Amino acid sequence: MDSAQRRLKVLLVGTGALGSVYAWRLQASGKVEITAVCRSNYAAVQQNGFLIQSAAFGTHTYRPTKIISSISNAAGEIYDYVIVCTKALPNLGDNSDIIAPAVSPSTTIVLIQNGVGIEEPFASRYPQNPLGSAVAYIDASQPEQGIINHGHLSAMTLGAYPPHSEHSARLTVLSEIWNQQGIPCTV
Fold it and tell me: The pTM is what?
């Protein structure tokens, strides 16, 4: 496979309902390899994958390209994107360090987290890396480990932080894939 056909390598940090649905649609494109960091749901996902029951896309078993139990297991790989879908709790502290083992100089960091003003700790810790933040509109839940219920809604708006055209270009790559896979996404 030449470099024009190389699949993008994405590390997903946060495999709850939101992260799992968005990662599934990226990998379904055939253009992306997903390494999923599963913590509490690791055993269930390692054994069975994610059973995604989606009103929008049907029922599917989704198996990420690779499933790992901690970010330290991601060290040594070069990821094009690290997508962070964990809960943002800025009032409790800075959690930007959790992705450090997986960030290389060429990694784009994408935050799909709750909250406003969550970008600054990541921008400060990784000043040379493109950084994007998302507003996600999704109706999804994980009632049991590895079981995802998804309705019809899964739209997203991505923005560069701070706004730079080279950061937006990296986000546009993901946006185009999500759009092709039925996830309305704008940058």
Answer: 0.94
